[in-house]
């Protein structure tokens, strides 16, 4: 499935360093990233330019950027196989994002559900315009690398559609330039819901105590959060789309995403069990994911210089791909090349 620009099919994805990563980020994104890294030429970035659309404390942003990169490695991304880099280290992202912003129809941007959700909660006078232009920057991230596949949770599918539409528009106006990427959602875990409110997506920016399991939660705390998860007053344990059964469905989904088993197998395993048993089993599955990840993360954060060397190499590898694509797009748009 490679395209005319790459000899190997390519993957690109990113996570915002805007808080502590959750099991939603892991099951929706990171776990897939690890699974595809031997089959694709993978680029994984820490999207700090996206994080500032929500306003960030400078000290915390720097810290979270390092932590996120370490978390990619701790989750199983091998820096010798995949390219790990920081978005703002590659100026081409900002440059192409501006070019795409200028040709992105305002109507398309205003129709993005994530934009509408975020703006709906805030005062128009105080929100930054970056929230509106967020998808153009995301399109730049993807198109600079001629990515064939983008592994994400399903909340990002509309942004991927937008990226494809924008690439098509650019190619139509200025000649064949960009590769049209495809979205890749995990079979299970494409949308993990909040433990306290299973009708809302689990989010790293939600502050209520029992909402999310963070990848760095102490395991006893993670267990407690799962044991307190909202369920319902039914008894049978099965996957269901009914809104009132969303809590149990979410626990089963977390379990399925970690165990990689079929729905039938899982429903069979819990056929004569109660909600307490289900919660215990989910808690054990989550803890068995967190423990090795946290051990590796702590090692990495204590290994002076290692993370910086990974990000330096990542920057070189990413720049070698992104720069020529930017030059091509600038040439197609009619910018005078510097002499
Ligand atoms: P972010 O940081 O909000 O989310 C990062 C990734 O985690 C997935 N995700 C979830 N998956 C399942 N259940 C959840 N509750 C859940 N919460 C988050 C998201 O779908 C995403 O895959 N806009 C992107 C960041 C980005 C990007 C890109 C992604 C910027 N440029 C280029 C791919 C390609 C985002 O949502 O970040």
Strands of the biggest beta sheet: in what spatial order?
Answer: 1-2-3
Q: How large, in whole angstroms, is the Cα Rg? A: 21 Å
Report mean pLDDT, rounded to a whole number. 95
Q: Pick out the low-confidence regions.
A: none
Q: In terms of structural class, how would the helical and strand content be classed?
A: mainly alpha
The total count of helices amounts to: 13
Report the end-to-end length measured between terminal Cα atoms. 37 Å
Describe the structure.
- This protein is mostly helical.
- The protein has helices at 23-36, 48-51, 58-74, 92-103, 106-110, 113-120, 130-143, 157-174, 219-227, 246-259, 263-269, 275-302, 306-333; strands at residues 10-15, 41-46, 83-86, 149-151, 182-184.
- The strands form two sheets. Strands 1-2-3 form a three-stranded parallel β-sheet.
- β4, α8 (157-174) and β5 form a beta-alpha-beta unit.
- The longest helix has 28 residues, at 275-302.
- It is globular and about 75 Å long.
- 42% of the residues are buried.
- The model has no long low-confidence stretch (mean pLDDT 95).
- Residues 12-16, 24-25, 27-29, 47, 50, 138, 141-142, 150, 152-153, 155-156, 189-192, 201-202 line the site of tryptophanyl-5'AMP.
